[in-house]
Amino acid sequence: MTAPLLAQRPSKALLIGLVASGLIALIVLALMLYAGGPVGFGLSALLGLAPLPVLLAAVLSLDRLEPEPKLNLAFAFVWGAGVAIVAGIALTLAGQELFSRAGYAASTVKDVGSVVLAPVIEEALKGSALLLLLRRRAEIDGLTDGIVYASMTGLGFATVENVGYYLLAFGEDGPGAAVQLFVMRGLIDPLGHPIYTSMIGLGIAYALTRGTPGRYAAIPLGYLGAVVLHGLWNGAATTGSLNVLGGAYLVIMVALIALIVVTVNERRHLIARMAHYLPAYRQTGLISDADLRMLTTLSTRKTARRWARGVGLGRAMSDYQHAATELTMLHVRAERKPMDPARFAAERDAYLAAMARSRRW
User: Fold this and answer.
1) Is the dihedral of CA 104, 107, 113, 116 positive or negative?
2) Among 25, 163, 228, 317, which lies 20 to 30 A Cα-Cα from 214?
3) Using CA atoms, how far apart are residues 201 and 76, in angstroms rounded to an integer?
4) Which of 130, 136, 138, 244 shows the shortest CA–CA distance to 196?
5) How far apart are CA 222 and CA 175, in angstroms?
């Protein structure tokens, strides 16, 4: 999209954070390679990355109606893979050392680190990316945005963490142990970290997009939800009981279903808002009755993109749909909180100009 107001210019802080956290992630992976050797690291990296394309596609599919800026998504992922993972390990080990010095048994220290310290510290660090990123209020139009950014942070964290766990299993018991662990972490429970941190994303997005009294209480409540889910899973894993682990898994799957319900409901609401606001722009000649029918259901939008790709207008159709969606979201934001009329007009005209450039059918 080329309209100047369709995306915020990336800040220097965002770019610096992206590069710095990316370098940290690369250093961590390099240390793993040095410690585990090329064979062990190669297998661990392969297992860690194998489910990532499918998981990324699943998360980004939630965002297809109103895609978030790619740079913001990359920052969230790399923050989880770099800053959050390193600081999380360091602070958890430091906390365990304090418990050890206090005289607690080694087994107790290990359980406290896994069930209490890791969830509390890791969720705070992953959530900090959202606080840094989501303060750019213009990018946060609904709860789905919070879920998407949180999931990207969780996926980055889980990817590097899993490589480390697979490498440890390989070093202790060989490739069979690494593959066995992959079945649990990479196939059965690949969405754990994204689900936990999505609770924080929900809280932050709710606080930014609602006008209700006490809305900022949703942020600590979301953090608490993330810690509880994370601690529940880690605690169940320490028991060694399949029944307890299965119960924890069921709770986390219920949370996943709830997140999906939130995104589906928001998508339906946005479609309804498009059907409400866009007819007023018929007089511009940029939206016909056929365009309205195409824009206001997900199936017809997908069919239109498929048709457009067949006639060489795929990018134009995507840009048109994106601009029309952003125009609707502009109205939603103005409905939620009064905007300066001049700013509203400038953004509206930018979206209409983008629609005019794209509409070639």
Assistant:
1) negative
2) 228
3) 11
4) 130
5) 38
